[in-house]
Amino acid sequence: MNIPSLLLVAIACGALIPIHAGMNAGLSQVAGHSFGVSFACLSLVVILFQPTLPTWVSLAAAAFWVWFGGAIGVVYVIATMMLAPRLGAARFIAAIVAGQIIMALLIDLYGLIGFPRHTVDLSRILGAVFVIGGVVAMQFN
Asked: Are the CB atoms for 120 and 108 separated by under 8 Å?
C-alpha cells in the first residue's frame, strides 16, 4: 500500500477510538468494567488463529520495555471508562491526541522504543502546537 492509502487506514482506525471510548464507558457503567468482554474476544482470536507460543529464549531476548505494552493498553481502557463520560468524546479524544502527538515527537526525536530517529522540524512543532491549541480551545464553552 502507498502512503496515502496507509494514512486513510490510520484515519479510519483513529475514527474507531472515540467509538471505543464510548462503548467502554457504557459497558463499565452496566458491568463495572469491560475486561470480561476483552478476555472473551482475545480468547476467540487465540482459538481461531492458533498463534504459536513464544519460546523462553525469545521471551528472554525481548527488550524490557516491550512488556509494558499490555499494561499501557489497560491504562488506556481504564482512562476511557473514567474520563470519557466526564469530559465528553471530543474533549477526551482531543486530549488523547495531544498526548499522542507530544510523545510521538519525543519518540521520533530520540528514536525511542525501536523507532528510527526523525527530525522534529518546524512543521511538526507547529502541528503539535495547533493540536494542543485545539485541546485548550475545546475547554471553553
From this structure: yes
What is the distance between the alpha carbons of residues 77 and 28, in angstroms, rounded to a whole number?
A: 10
Blockwise average pLDDT, block size 10, the chain, 141 residues: 87 86 83 80 91 90 88 86 88 87 93 92 92 83 67
**CB under 8 Å to 124, separation ≥6 — which residues?**
105, 108
Query: Which amino acid is it at 31?
Result: A
Query: End-to-end CA distance of the chain, in Å?
Result: 41
Phi, psi of 28 (to 5 degrees): -65, -30
Helix H or strand E segment including 39: helix 35-49
In 3D, which of 108, 112, 136, 110 has the Cα closest to residue 123? 108
pTM for the whole thing? 0.73
